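chain below, 321 aa
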Amino acid sequence: MKTWRRISLAATAAAVLTLTTACGQDQGDQGLGGAPAGAAKPAGAPAEGGYGDAYGSGTGAAAKSAGQLAVWNDKKLGKVLTDAEGFTLYRFDKDSASPPTATCEGECAKAWPVVSPDGAKPPAGVDAVQLGEVTRADGSKQLTVGGWPMYRYAKDTKPGEANGQGVGGTWFAAAPDGKKAAPAGDGEGGADDSGQESGADLAGLSVRKDPQLGEIVVDSRGMTVYRFKKDSAWPMKTACTGACLEKWPVVAPVAKNDVKGITTKGFVTFARPDGIKQQTIDCWPIYTFAGDAEPGDTNGQGVGGTWYAVSPQGKLVGAPK
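prediction:
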């Protein structure tokens, strides 16, 4: 009996240790929800049939809810629109934006799962008027952005992948306004006055030297990243839900190899209770602020005495002790 109890206690301790090390120590890109934050794939993909039928699989047929849309920056594709889980959204050249028309049906929809308008909210900086819906031939609804019906791709298995780019010469990653994603024009990159790279050259998360706050974390657009004091890192919890997310959009999952100058301790994907996938630093969920209009803004700093910019080590910047 004593031997059995010792084994049981040891197993329990091991389980607790596993949970503890999953948050607060470097565990790679694996999130608590089991969804890894994958590395971005290069632009370009094998040219299959126009509908991508060769990739059809029954597992991809169900419509995917849009949720809180986000934007990630790829060095080859530019700004790319994603759903709440961080998966790339695509548009199909054989569809139409005016009037909105969806033509991907049957086997095509297995390879290119339809994105449902359920819970769709625009990413920060994008007017909600860009979002709409179209009624498909089977009577179901599909999200449109800039009039274009939105899809995911069955061969994208992780956030940050864009394996559907260029398939059949008709499928392309969508930009935040529904147009085809494209890198910024020549001369839009380079460095700003702080010496930090800007434009399409920014990593998924990097560091900016702010004149008042010092070194703070920014996303791929150069927008300030924030933490919420009412959240928790262990156990990992969020207190920003519902309407709060309209003002404080989550930072979508970022590949660990797409960060610069930031700790990767506790750099995991948080599977939120509302189904949204969120990046964390040192296990703290991170956000941007809808009130920041352009890179360099820090209008969210100190809001309500609970929102603060984030240091490269994941700490609150400028918060009272």
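The chain has two domains: 53-173, 199-309. Residues 2-22 form the longest helix (21 residues).
thats it, cya
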